[in-house]
Amino acid sequence: MRLTLSTLPSLLAVSAKLLCLLMVVICGAVPSMVRSVRLYNDCSGSQVRVDMRGRVLADDVDTPDRFRNMTIRSLDFSVKLTIFAEESKRFLCFNQKWKLVGSKRFRGEMCQFYENMVQNGYNRFRSVADGTRYMGFNRRGKPLRGTATPHNPKCLNFIKLDQKFDILSHNMRMAAGMYNESTDPVSRRTGYGKSKGFPERRTTPRIRHKNHHRKFVK
């Protein structure tokens, strides 16, 4: 086809259609983004778990760690994601009363979240069905209803941890002052430590000599 002013619009239209088809093919070939993590809630100080009954909690109850393993999946680089409890085989979803539950069945947007990063590297998970509702837990580890506005915004904050990360050992090291801020994963993300003004613990005791202030008598 000879390129003229009269044929230019039709050629541009064909090129646009081919470009759209190419984008569809590329998106269909893109694999889903999957990551296995544990979700540490800043308010309860514990990791999220989903039991076989579908209860979602973030408490310190002595349960096998495998119930705290979550798979975060986003399809085709979409900003929407799902959170799936691997052991109990349940999706994290909001029910009709906007309570966080573990559902065996995927319920569309009620089981989808947007992930937002906030100050100090924390993540928040906002419902796709209603952008005003967030996933969160109170200090006792019970899920906040989506309609509730927490007095403490920390209750909406999460840290995505590797499944091999031992939060109990981390807390013990922090309490004993035996941590290195440059290598600790939580200190790097939350800013806790020297940057928050916490005093450094001395690793060696100070030795006071008995005769330090005595005058020498001949």
* Strand percentage: 15-25%
Helical proportion?
A: 10-25%
Bulk shape: elongated
Number of structurally distinct domains:
2
What is the CATH T-level topology of the largest domain?
Trefoil (Acidic Fibroblast Growth Factor, subunit A)
CATH class designation of the largest domain = Mainly Beta
Major sheet characteristics: 9 strands, antiparallel
This entry's quaternary arrangement is single chain
Query: How confident is the prediction overall: mean pLDDT?
Result: 75
Structural class: alpha+beta
| Parts with pLDDT < 50 across at least 5 consecutive residues | 24-30, 178-218
- Give the C-alpha Rg: 26 Å
The succession of helices and strands, N to C, reads: HEEEEEEEEEEEHH
| Quantity of strands, as a count | 11
Q: How many individual helices? A: 3
**Can you tell me the CATH architecture of the largest domain?**
Trefoil
Task: State the distance separating the first and last CA atoms.
Answer: 117 Å
Family: Belongs to the heparin-binding growth factors family.
Pfam family, one: FGF
Region (Disordered): 182-218
InterPro entries: Fibroblast_GF_fam (IPR002209), IL1/FGF (IPR008996)
Report on this structure.
By secondary structure, the protein is of the alpha+beta class. It folds into two domains: 33-161, Trefoil (Trefoil (Acidic Fibroblast Growth Factor, subunit A)); 167-191, no CATH class. 17% of the residues lie in helices and 22% in strands. It has helices at residues 8-29, 167-176, 185-190; strands spanning 33-41, 46-47, 49-50, 56-57, 70-74, 80-85, 90-94, 100-103, 113-117, 123-127, 158-161. The strands form two sheets. Strands 1, 2, 5, 6, 7, 8, 9, 10 and 11 form a nine-stranded antiparallel β-sheet that branches. The chain is elongated and about 80 Å long. Residues 24-30 and 178-218 have low confidence and may be disordered.
